């Protein structure tokens, strides 16, 4: 029922920046915990970042902490992932996900199974 559409992926050189966007349908966006995940070829989908309903709390995987920033604009039904100082290991398909009724518990927001809706993914390729 809820549709998520990622955009902003592409090819960027190592050390560069990229900003991903995820637009959500409906008028309940502000009630969702939003997360970003990524999946590289041959690897499992892994947690990247999450943001609470009111943007008060954020949570990042150690691998991206201090380089990535997640934010949201509830008026625009959009969540963002600003990626700076990109590394080749950041290359992956990035997915936006929404948790409709979840509580802000790190074990939950960092887990794939807690999210109800997923976008189609956007490819991020970091070259050196």
Please explain how this structure is put together:
It is built from 1 helix and 11 strands; from the N terminus they run βββββββββαββ. The chain has one helix at 106-109, and strands at 4-7, 10-13, 18-24, 33-39, 46-51, 58-60, 68-73, 78-83, 92-99, 117-118, 122-127. The strands form 2 sheets. Strands 2, 4, 5, 6, 9, 10 and 11 form a 7-stranded mixed β-sheet that branches. The N and C termini lie far apart (40 Å).
Computed over alpha carbons, the radius of gyration is 13 Å
Number of helices: 1
In terms of DSSP E residues, the strand content is over 45%
Dominant shape: globular
Order of helices and strands: EEEEEEEEEHEE
How does the helix and strand content classify structurally?
mainly beta
Count of extended strands: 11
Oligomeric grouping of the chains: single chain
First-residue to last-residue Cα separation? 40 Å
The low-confidence runs, each spanning 5 or more residues with pLDDT under 50, are none
- Please summarize the sheet with the most strands: 7 strands, mixed
Percent of residues in helices comes to under 10%
Mean pLDDT: 96
Strand-helix topology:
Elements: E1 4-7, E2 10-13, E3 18-24, E4 33-39, E5 46-51, E6 58-60, E7 68-73, E8 78-83, E9 92-99, H1 106-109, E10 117-118, E11 122-127
Parallel strand pairs: 2-11
Antiparallel strand pairs: 1-3, 3-8, 4-5, 4-9, 5-6, 7-8, 9-10, 9-11
